[in-house]
Each structure stands twice: as structure tokens, then as C-alpha cells.
């Protein structure tokens, strides 16, 4: 069921939600949180679809805040709030309100959102694009227990990581960090199977991918070893190679779907490591509402402390034309470098 409201108020929107629930016979119980999505018109559909899919696991009231650009001086001085209320099958397993703000009311979105929050329920704010540099000090971010951004959508993703580190507040998180959860789990499980000491690590992935940098910073922070960042043609993360006293441990994913885990002295194993959709990432972030201390430690390690390799061998025409087994062998030969000795304490 959809209810369209033009030039409305937050009070009228709440009344429309009550009318909609009564019309379909659905009570307001069962919703566990309020998800506020701050986006533009271009990205609203994809964000709303991802939130709707995630609501099957986390029934919630979803508020989509779209600040419309004023095209004339008159529009900039005329404040208006339009809303689209969705309940029932049109809103997944919760409720959805799409808010379009015009004129001066765009600068006071928090005043519009505040009366629409579920009482006594956590609030999560998600910026799919154009996130503020300091989410916790944003008027909408200040309403939330968790603030979700995505540095991959920034114009300069790697530089954005440094800005996020400086402005970090407990409760901040990043979908670029969420994307590497399966990688971190697989690498931790691989290290649990051996009793060796890690001496150096190489993280390989496409250029300007913040997930690659975050994984490298996490490994450097946790293992306290030199981590080398090398480039490939992607997609996303392609390999992690750890040099240990017992031999190399390699997690290689060349196609973005299936990876191969190789541990010295053990047979190679194929593991599922596909690239996940945004709905899966949001659903994972909504499972926990407490601060992510591991993310904070990795973020504060600093991108500038990584040993970055400027060349990407996979982009060369000769490498692209070589057979797959030869390419992998050449890459392993070319990218192996002696581990740097750890600085004496």
C-alpha cells in the first residue's frame, strides 16, 4: 500500500502510517530499529532495494531522506516536504517513508526525521554516497547509534580513509570494511591451522580500492609485520600471500567468486569467496549495534604506513595474453620479495 503526501508535515506522515497499518491489519510491533538512508534521487532506488532485502532479516522502519536541489531562487526560499508512505508488501517486512525535502527545510532534515523515529528503538544512519567527513557531528548522524558510510563511493577512496580515521567516533563503520569480513575470517582460520610465525604479507587488489587498504592495515596492525600492497586488474581483492617460517600461505581469488587456499604441506582447497551485494552488507552491519573496535584499530593504523607497489603487472598487454597458469606463475615469481626485518623495539 502506498500513500502519497504533498506539502506535508511529520505529523501527517505519522497519521498516514497509522492509517496504512489499519488498512492492511498490520500492527507496529516487530520492528527492531529505524534505518535512515540519506541519499540523492539518482541512488535512492538502489539503496531502497538493498534496505528492503535486508529488512527480511531486520524488520525496520526505513526513512529515505532525499534533499532536492533548488533550481531557481524562488525554490530555494520555498520550503516543502513531500512524502511517500509504504506499508505492507510495498515496504518489505517493515515500513518505508520516502522524504523529499525542498528549500530551507533541507538544512533541517533532522527536525523532520526525529518525530518519525520508532520509540525506544536503535537508529542507524546510512549514507550510500556523499557521506559527511565527520558522520558523528552531522545533524542526522547525531541521532544514531551506528553510522554507515562507504568510502568506495568517494572520489578519492584511499584519501578518504585518512579523513575517516581522523574523525572516527565509536559507532562509525564502513561498507568497505564489511566487504572483507569473509577474507578476514578465512585468513584467521588459516593461521589457526599452523604454529608458524608470519614474517611478511602481500595484499593484492585493484588500485584505489579501500577494501584492499583496510585488509592490509588490519593484517599489519594485528600481525605486527611488514605488509606490502601490490596492484592487479581486479575485480576487488585478488590475493593475500603470507610468508611464514613454515612456508607460504596463499589465498588467491582471481575471478571474484571462487578462491583457492594454499597452505604449505596441505592440499590446495577451493573456498567460496564471492563478492557480496549491498543488501548482504547492510544486513551484516545491522546485526551489531555496538562499536567495532577492530575496525577502529585497523583504520587508525594509517594507509601511509603500508609499503605500496606502484606497478600493476596484470595491466600489461603481454600478461593479459598469457595463459592463465603461466600468468599466475609469472605473478608469483615477479611479486615475491624478501620480507623486511621488523624494526628493533
UniProtKB/TrEMBL annotation:
Residues 52-166 form the Glucose-6-phosphate dehydrogenase assembly protein OpcA N-terminal domain. This is Glucose-6-phosphate dehydrogenase assembly protein OpcA. Residues 309-345 are annotated as: Disordered. Residues 309-328 have a biased composition (Low complexity). It comes from the Bacteria. InterPro entries: G6PDH_assembly_OpcA, OpcA_G6PD_C, OpcA_G6PD_N. It comes from Streptomyces monashensis. Residues 329-345 have a biased composition (Basic residues). Residues 170-299 form the Glucose-6-phosphate dehydrogenase assembly protein OpcA C-terminal domain.
Amino acid at each position: 500500500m502506498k500513500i502519497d503526501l504533498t506539502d506535508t508535515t511529520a505529523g501527517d506522515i505519522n497519521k498516514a502510517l497509522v492509517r496504512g497499518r489499519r488498512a492492511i491489519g498490520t500492527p507496529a510491533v516487530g520492528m527492531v530499529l529505524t534505518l535512515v538512508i540519506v541519499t540523492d534521487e539518482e541512488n535512492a532506488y538502489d539503496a531502497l532495494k538493498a534496505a528492503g532485502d535486508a529488512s527480511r532479516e531486520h524488520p525496520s522502519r526505513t526513512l529515505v531522506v532525499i534533499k532536492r536541489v533548488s533550481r531557481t531562487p524562488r525554490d530555494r526560499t520555498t520550503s516543502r516536504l513531500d512524502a511517500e508512505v509504504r506499508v505492507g508488501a510495498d515496504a518489505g517486512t517493515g515500513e518505508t517513508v520516502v522524504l523529499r525535502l525542498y528549500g530551507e527545510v533541507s538544512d533541517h532534515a533532522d527536525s523532520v526525521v526525529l518525530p518519525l523515529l520508532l520509540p525506544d528503538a536503535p537508529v542507524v544512519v546510512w549514507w550510500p554516497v556523499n557521506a559527511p567527513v565527520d558522520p558523528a557531528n552531522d545533524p542526522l548522524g547525531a541521532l544514531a547509534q551506528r553510522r554507515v558510510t562507504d568510502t568506495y563511493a568517494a572520489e578519492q577512496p584511499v584519501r578518504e580513509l585518512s579523513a575517516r580515521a581522523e574523525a572516527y567516533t565509536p559507532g562509525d563503520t564502513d561498507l568497505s570494511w564489511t566487504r572483507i569480513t569473509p577474507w578476514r575470517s578465512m585468513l584467521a582460520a588459516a593461521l589457526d591451522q599452523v604454529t608458524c610465525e608470519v614474517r611478511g604479507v602481500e595484499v593484492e587488489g585493484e588500485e584505489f580500492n579501500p577494501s584492499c587498504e583496510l585488509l592490509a592495515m588490519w593484517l599489519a596492525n594485528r600481525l605486527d609485520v611488514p605488509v606490502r600492497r601490490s596492484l592487479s586488474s581486479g575485480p576487488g581483492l585478488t590475493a593475500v600471500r603470507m610468508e611464514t617460517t613454515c612456508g607460504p600461505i596463499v589465498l588467491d581469488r582471481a575471478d571474484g567468486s571462487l578462491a583457492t587456499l594454499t597452505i604449505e604441506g596441505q592440499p590446495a582447497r577451493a573456498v567460496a569467496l564471492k563478492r557480496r551485494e549491498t543488501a548482504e552488507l547492510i544486513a551484516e552491519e545491522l546485526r551489531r549495534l555496538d562499536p567495532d573496535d577492530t575496525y577502529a584499530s585497523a583504520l587508525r593504523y594509517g594507509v601511509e604506513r603500508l609499503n605500496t607497489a606502484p606497478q600493476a603487472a596484470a595491466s600489461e598487454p603481454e600478461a593479459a595474453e598469457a595463459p592463465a597458469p603461466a600468468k599466475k606463475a609469472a605473478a608469483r615469481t615477479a611479486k615475491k620479495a624478501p620480507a623486511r626485518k621488523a624494526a628493533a623495539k
